[in-house]
Write a structure and sequence with these properties.
The complex is a heterodimer. By secondary structure, chain A is mainly alpha-helical. Chain A contains two helices and no strands. Chain A is 53% helix and 0% strand. Chain A starts with 7 loop residues before the first helix and ends with a helix. Mean pLDDT of chain A is 66; it is low at 1-19. Chain B has helices at 2-5, 14-24, 72-79, 93-101, 131-156, 161-167, 170-200, 214-230, 246-253, 255-280, 285-288, 294-320, 332-335, and strands at 57-60, 63-66, 232-234, 240-242. The chains are: A mainly alpha, B mainly alpha.
């Protein structure tokens, strides 16, 4: 059975229109944590 | 277990989404890979019964293909999504799952795929035919999966493209996190992976239909939301990666909402855990999909409803963080159920 894969491009364009509240600059660690978890989870061991 | 917890990174990070189809594409027309019960070509997919393991030479979209050697390049460059049909999945977890377990011919009854180990044997013990080529395929697919996973490790490394794209702008980065959580919660997991299969009562719609390991897939997908929101991930060796969390960021804007979303994610894990416990007790996910099985329906819909509930608070988080403009993936099974049967 086939079904269309979700088109991430459309959503990325939507996402890119989001404006960053100034308060986010104080929370850059959130992004670091997210990327660190992505890295750790991507490893197979 | 680790891979399923990274599915939350797919939506919102284009690098991950572009790559995901190599490792986790499903559903698949497994007859392209190996023997199946009663397989045949279809109008939608003329290669649905190709059985490349038994067919070293064939014509694909008008081109003569030499498949005498089954290599990673043959799988990724020629067979995967052959003839532009997405069900021609030649690589990744589910192709390997099929090569190990074989078809599950039990429908919504007890039992998973039951491929005999002698499909990989030598001498008189051989079954299934072409055992050497089947082993060659399994080796090639496994090597390819490892290299694809290594690629993604590099993307999230210190100088990796996925990390760099994320860190480019704080607002867009936070938007990417919430986009990933919302789209996987709602359209993908609650919709395409869970409610759709229940509506169709179709065991082919379960995510791990060969191995009957779907309960673990769904559970660890749910764990991925929890990890991202709470800023913590437990590796397979028990060590923990932790840091500043999305929850703490949201709490600075709306502490009540931050707590409510945390409670939602915990509730989702309870519901997914109930499915996992039932499956490990012998009530497999494909049995839950059987028409008229009230207990199975209640288990699955409990998790679907929890995923939808958490999505509502993810949407509220988007608003609270002034990130309006984010869209989440939908699913006909949730948004337009009558279309599923058209």
């Amino acid at each position: 059975m086939t079904r269309p894969r979700f088109n991430i491009i459309a959503m990325t364009l939507l996402s890119s229109t989001a404006l960053a509240p100034a308060a986010f600059a104080d929370h850059a660690g959130v992004l670091d944590t997210y990327a660190d978890i992505a890295l750790a989870g991507s490893r197979t061991a | 277990m680790p891979y399923q917890q990274t599915e939350v990174f797919r939506f919102g990070n284009a690098i991950v989404d572009d790559w995901e189809g190599k490792v986790n594409a499903w559903p698949l027309d497994e007859g392209m890979i190996d023997y199946v019960d009663g397989g045949s070509a279809t109008d939608e997919n003329p290669y649905a019964a190709l059985n490349v393991i038994a067919t070293p030479q064939f014509t694909l979209s008008g081109t003569e293909i030499d498949a005498t050697a089954i290599t990673p390049a043959l799988l990724s460059g020629t067979l995967h999504e052959a003839d532009e049909v997405e069900a021609n999945v030649a690589t990744g977890y589910h192709a390997i799952e099929f090569l190990l377990w074989g078809q599950d011919l039990n429908g919504t009854g007890p039992g998973a795929g039951n491929r005999p180990f002698t499909d990989y044997a030598s001498g008189d013990a051989r079954t299934g035919g072409n055992c050497d080529r089947r082993a060659e395929y399994l080796n090639a697919a496994s090597d390819l999966l490892v290299s694809d996973l290594e690629y993604m490790v590099a993307q999230w490394g210190d100088q990796g493209a996925a990390r760099s794209a994320l860190l480019q702008d704080e607002g867009a980065g936070i938007a990417a996190i919430l986009t990933g959580m919302g789209s996987l919660s709602y359209g993908e997991q609650a919709g395409e992976r869970m409610k759709l299969g229940l509506m169709l009562n179709d065991p082919e719609e379960e995510h791990d239909c060969f191995s009957d390991n779907t309960h673990n897939s769904h559970f660890y997908e749910g764990q991925g939301f929890w990890n991202v929101y709470n800023g913590a991930y437990t590796r397979v060796d028990g060590t923990v990666v932790t840091g500043e969390s999305l929850k703490s960021l949201l709490a600075g804007f709306n502490p009540n909402l931050a707590g409510a979303l945390a409670a939602d994610l915990d509730a989702t894990m309870d519901k997914l855990g109930a499915i996992k416990t039932a499956a490990e007790g012998g009530f497999a996910y494909d049995m839950m999909l059987a028409r008229g099985n009230a207990e199975g329906e209640a288990l699955i819909m409990g998790a679907v409803d929890a995923l939808v509930d958490q999505t509502r608070n993810i949407e509220r988080a988007v608003t609270a963080l002034d990130l309006d403009g984010i869209g989440f993936e939908g699913s006909d099974s949730l948004d337009n159920p009558s279309a599923v049967f058209e």
